[in-house]
Design a protein that fits this description.
By secondary structure, the protein is mostly helical. It is built from 18 helices and no strands. Keywords: Cell membrane, Membrane, Transmembrane, Transmembrane helix.
Length: 385
């Protein structure tokens, strides 16, 4: 196996474990966790928001460490943090312990992405970097898809599930130590604090915040919504997660679609799909077929849009790919940190129906932001896809 292919496979697996297991599986198992630890919707939202907050803090630190140490060190650290956080979730005896473990597990996702962007810049030919980055990013869908069957098999045994996820994270730490380059490459030469916010970066921040906030409707509350609307238990929620994750793997095509149709067109089309998916899963009167179809739409749209933001940020800061990725993904997480507790509070104070409609509308508003890429940058995207 070539070093570039090994790097792509390792990055795909690392993102699958950190995002699919450590960050998003909490929403899948939330009904069972709630039954064991007696969590209210508002408290569930706050704990879920804590995972996103941990991500916010970690991704900023990760970009800085990647530029000063090496992609390998930070990638291994990400896998180990995921392992410790998920082991803590498996052992959690109370809500405060769970909140701390969820926050730590969520931090692993922030640590994982920047070193992979830097590693791709250092080890992959320029014409293949865009495609490789979006393939690695699609690992989120694979992780979500794998967590679904685990939920089906484990039923109410969510603690055992997270113990197994922690073991998988240890395996990926070993793989990262073997396959991720130890040299941070060009990032070390250009490291130096926060970059100037040019037009494309400002617009990216607006779009990513709004999309991130809206996504918590399903990432944090998808399991509760199908339990409420369809009286589904762990089996039904697992099927929803499989639908979301399987469709999300198509997000590996984001780089090619951006090269062919442009950032703005791809961005808006999949924001509409994402809003539709949220409504189909969470609306009053939904059916099993509509809910699963909504999960497919949501999964496809979310991973596709994050792939768009990845290309958008990396191209806007081509000499600092870890930082370019960090800005877009950090802003998604800030939106998720704000969105999860707000959605939970809306469910309690108004109704799930109002919360779903408002957050679907929030996804659509992200389309007002334009990439506004310069011709040179657009040409670079086409070459990289």
């Amino acid at each position: 196996m070539s070093p570039a292919l090994a790097l792509g496979a390792t990055g795909f697996g690392l993102i699958a474990v950190c995002y699919g297991f450590a960050r998003f599986a909490f929403g899948l198992f939330l009904p069972q966790i709630d039954a064991d630890l007696s969590l209210s919707s508002t408290l569930s939202g706050l704990i879920s928001g804590g995972a996103f907050l941990g991500y916010c803090l970690a991704i900023t630190l990760s970009a800085w460490l990647t530029e000063r140490l090496s992609a390998r060190i930070v990638a291994v650290g990400a896998a180990l943090v995921a392992a410790v956080g998920m082991a803590g979730m498996a052992l959690a005896p109370s809500a405060p312990w769970l909140a701390a473990a969820v926050m730590l597990a969520g931090a692993s996702t922030g640590l994982a992405s920047p070193p992979m962007a830097a590693a791709v810049a250092a080890a992959v030919r320029p014409e293949r970097q865009g495609a490789t980055n979006t393939v690695i990013n699609a690992g989120t869908g694979a992780g979500v898809v794998m967590s679904g069957p685990v939920a089906l098999m484990m039923g109410d045994q969510w603690r055992l599930a997270f113990a197994g996820f922690a073991a998988a994270a240890v395996v990926l730490a070993i793989a990262a130590a073997l396959c991720v380059p130890n040299d941070p490459g060009r990032d070390r030469k250009t490291a130096g604090g926060l970059p100037a916010l040019n037009g494309p970066l400002k617009h990216l921040i607006v779009a990513a915040f709004l999309m991130g906030a809206s996504s918590t409707a399903l990432w944090s509350f998808g399991g509760q919504l199908v339990s409420l609307r369809l009286d589904w238990g762990s089996t039904g929620a697992g099927l929803l997660w499989i639908a979301i994750g399987a469709a999300g793997m198509v997000g590996a095509l984001a780089g090619s679609l951006v090269a062919r149709f442009g950032v703005d067109r791809v961005h808006r089309v999949f924001l509409i799909a994402m809003a539709g998916g949220i409504v189909m899963v969470g609306m009053e009167g939904t059916t099993p077929a509509l809910a699963l179809s909504g999960g497919v739409l949501f999964g496809l749209a979310y991973i596709m849009i994050t792939g768009v933001y990845l290309v958008w940020g990396v191209e806007a800061l081509s000499q600092r790919p870890a930082t370019g990725l960090m800005i877009g993904f950090l802003t998604i997480a800030i939106g998720q940190t704000a969105g999860a507790p707000i959605f939970g509070a809306l469910m309690e104070m108004l109704s799930p129906q109002y919360a779903v409609i408002l957050f679907a509308g929030l996804a659509l508003t992200a389309g007002v932001a334009r990439a506004d890429q310069r011709p040179a940058a657009r040409t670079a995207v086409k070459k990289n896809a």
